[in-house]
Amino acid sequence: MYDLSGKTIIVTGGASGIGKAIALKMASVGGEVHILEFDEPKGRQTVEEIRRMNAKAHFHPCDVSKQDKAKQIIDDVHAQSGIDILINNAGIAHVGNLEQTDEEAMDRIYDVNIKGVYNCMYAVVPHMKKQGGTILNMASIASTVGISDRFAYSMSKGAVLTMTYSVAKDYIEYGIRCNSISPARIHTPFVDGFIKKNYPGKETEMFEKLSKTQPIGRMGTPEEVAALALFLCSSEAKFITGTDFPIDGGFIKLNG
Ligand SMILES: NC(=O)c1ccc[n+]([C@@H]2O[C@H](COP(=O)([O-])OP(=O)(O)OC[C@H]3O[C@@H](n4cnc5c(N)ncnc54)[C@H](O)[C@@H]3O)[C@@H](O)[C@H]2O)c1
Predict the structure, then answer these.
(1) Is 91 in the pocket of ligand 1 (CB under 6 A)?
(2) Residues 198 and 84 in one domain
(3) Is 77 within the bounds of a domain?
(4) Handedness of CA 212, 217, 223, 229 (dihedral sign)
């Protein structure tokens, strides 16, 4: 059904979880995937996995919070092949209410989750203005719904949502579509990592609790998010822009 042959796709944070599933999915339908990623060994492993599928992938070590580096990579990729799709997926978690969020944590969440998305869009939009393109940002249910103990994270994902609306509006006339996805809990290393860090000794209990916060009774899978991402970046979705898509097992509308 989908065909991304000849398309160049940038996926940030493509070494793990949702980003990895998106990179594999896009490559499986012919896309040439460029992974911009902090974690070099895992990023290279993902690229190898994609190449073993006889598909095209490249790894670029990158901390997306650093504008110069992200821009240089994006400019280089554009010079080689143009860029059709940017997927801003890289993100980090933080657990805590306002009083438990110190300045350092606030700055780091801002740098990666907000500035990282801004940096990559800032670099890619001037190129996409010439040929059109698609941008997909990874927001969260925390963008629109109050989640306990996620002060800084919610702040950052609210900004991802509103940056999406802003870019969609300002660049619609250039043929750039910009949308976001808002997952509820998806079972990835991101979730395992923060359960381990924040609830030591209570991992199984917390996993069960977090699974049940989705009315559907479980966490989502990275592959389910990747399927939605593929649709939104495909030509089948060419009428869709400036929209956020919850993928949440009923979390937003069916809880309570
Ligand atoms: N898993 C969930 O429940 C969930 C829910 C809603 C939204 N999200 C969002 O989805 C995205 C992916 O989450 P995931 O669960 O797959 O996480 P993950 O931790 O499994 O993967 C995130 C990847 O991003 C990379 N990364 C982190 N900081 C980076 C940086 N500064 N520069 C480049 N790469 C960086 C990490 O190395 C990692 O490979 C995040 O933006 C997250 O906020 C996740």
Answers:
(1) yes
(2) no
(3) yes
(4) negative
Q: Can you tell me the distance from the alpha carbon of 106 to that of 175, in angstroms, rounded to the nearest whole number?
A: 35
pLDDT tens digits in sequence order for the chain, 256 residues long? 899 999 999 999 999 999 999 999 999 999 999 999 999 999 999 999 999 999 999 999 999 999 999 999 999 999 999 999 999 999 999 999 999 999 999 999 999 999 999 999 999 999 999 999 999 999 999 999 999 999 999 999 999 999 999 999 999 999 999 999 999 999 998 889 889 988 899 999 999 999 999 999 999 999 999 999 999 999 999 999 999 999 999 999 999 7
The domain total for the chain is 2
Q: How far is the CA of 3 from the centre of ligand 1 (A)?
A: 26
Give the phi and the psi of residue 93 in degrees, each rounded to 5.
Answer: -100, 160
214: containing domain:
186-219
64: phi then psi, degrees, rounded to nearest 5: -65, -15
> Ligand 1 centre and the CA of 89: distance in Å?
6
Task: Indicate which CATH number applies to the domain containing 109.
Answer: 3.40.50.720
How far away, in angstroms, is 36 Cα from ligand 1 center?
12
Q: Which of 2, 122, 153, 199 is catalytic?
A: 153
Shared domain for 140 and 174, answered yes or no, is yes
- Which of 190, 197, 225 to probe ligand 1 with, by most ligand atoms within 8 A of CB? 190
